[in-house]
Amino acid sequence: MNVRRGRPPAYQKELALSALTETFRLNGYVATSLDALVSATGMNRPSLFAAFGNKHSMYLAALDHFRDTVRSRLQPELEAGRSLSEDMTAFYECAIEHYCEGNALGCLLLSTALSDAPNDSEVRDRLRQSVNEIEAAIGQRVKRALAKECDEESHHYLTKILLSQLIALSAQARMGIPEEQLRHSIRLVLSAILPSDGRTPCG
Known about the structure:
Elements: H1 10-31, H2 34-41, H3 45-52, H4 55-74, H5 84-99, H6 108-112, H7 121-146, H8 152-174, H9 179-193
Helix pairs in contact: 1-2, 1-4, 4-7, 5-8, 5-9, 7-8, 8-9
């Protein structure tokens, strides 16, 4: 990242946080060493600890940063005013782009943090909160589109199905499946889940 060594100015802290996030996303919490974090941020250890706290605090900050970044990129796609099928397609394709950027593939939360959640209540709480936020956003979009056609139970099940596709995309990206293949797959899935020929997806 080539951040100047020493205590960084405020505008560089965001760059350092992004570097921490990508390093944890690539290696996971346990396999990420302090040396790797120092190297990624370009900060010396005292400066790194002063800015972010210990390694666990850095990891929690990275989880929060990743969640906020994903939210800022994905949420607008659900509020664009297109059809439900078009909005969900754009939503997933934006997620795929994010999951396939750089060397750290997949989602820090839905892929990497899953292995840490069972033994770390703070990680587990952040993961649960993030998933709940995503599910709520998808659910609101589904309800806006299908309030007249489908009942509450159908909204619930359709939302769960759509959420599961995001989790699956993260896992597939983590496995190194090419971006274009992921895009093709989600389009096929959505064509079955959200038909564009006037048929209702509920039932």
